[in-house]
Prior knowledge:
The chain has 224 residues and is α/β, with parallel strands linked by helices. The protein is built from 7 helices and 10 strands. Helix 3 (104-114) crosses helix 4 (119-132).
Amino acid sequence: MSDPIITAQGLCKAYVLGRRRLDVLRGVDLTVRAGEFLALRGASGAGKSTLLHLLGGLDRPDAGSIEVGGQHLNRLSPGELTQFRNRRVGFIFQAYHLLPELDAVENVVLPARMARRPLAESLQQARELLRRVGLAERLDHRPAELSGGEQQRVAIARCLINDPQLILADEPTGNLDSKTGAEVLELLLTLRAERGTTLVVCTHDARVASRAERVIDLVDGRVS
Length: 224
């Protein structure tokens, strides 16, 4: 068994909506081993996306601790968290989050630009990744010129540009038809196997969960 890449203990997170307090996570403990494919399941509002955001340093817990790859996220400054997200984590979202004014290569290369990597090298890698995900003929296309499946492939290439240790995917097949979703899932699993990357996916999709090495259910903010 490989060593843990994620160790989370006692995670709590709440949001205040007007006069109402919404407790989303209520003491979550989670360990994920390096190279593992873990699926997080649960009904809408169960806390899946919130947990994913905490693990990736997009948000901070109200209580509890998170260690990813030997780094204690609770102890990192905002600037250090930004570097952590940029260099160690790849994010894939259901809504793709591509910049509409940029073409496919420009969207993929953005995280490398933020990491201040050499531009020529990064552009070459972005083109190679887009070819790898089947978009060799779409390099100069903007998001509005791409199908949903093609946009998700661009998002996958973007998440790989800095060779992350950890990929966090939030409903990556949720906006896709069944055929395209299956193709995207196969692509993601192939790339993960080639690179030995840890993959944590939030999903309602039974096909995605069935391919995971381990499945965890969140119910009312707790691990079931």
